[in-house]
Design a protein that fits this description.
This protein has three helices and no strands. With about 80 residues, it is mostly helical.
């Protein structure tokens, strides 16, 4: 049995499902959610705040230590303090 006429007819009507499924899969992944979320936050920050009154602070990593003392908080496994950064 030849399925090519059925397959071509199906693809002619539902060709948009394949890119939609790929995009939905990317957005639903944790990495895709992170990238989409960062883009959304940057876009909202650009729209809502004046450029003279803001400073972009994206891409920072928060460290858990007492400021300036180099002492670690209980449970902290990092060997670097904020003063060493």
């Amino acid at each position: 049995m030849d399925y090519s006429p059925f397959l071509t007819s199906f693809l002619q009507h539902f060709w948009w499902v394949i890119p939609f499924a790929i995009i939905a899969g990317i957005i639903k992944s944790p990495r895709g959610k992170g990238i989409f979320g960062e883009i959304l936050v940057k876009l909202i920050a650009k729209i809502r705040f004046r450029s003279q009154a803001k400073r972009s602070v994206f891409g920072l990593t928060r460290t858990r230590c007492l400021l300036g003392t180099g002492e670690k908080i209980k449970g902290e496994s990092s060997n670097r303090s904020l003063a060493q950064l």
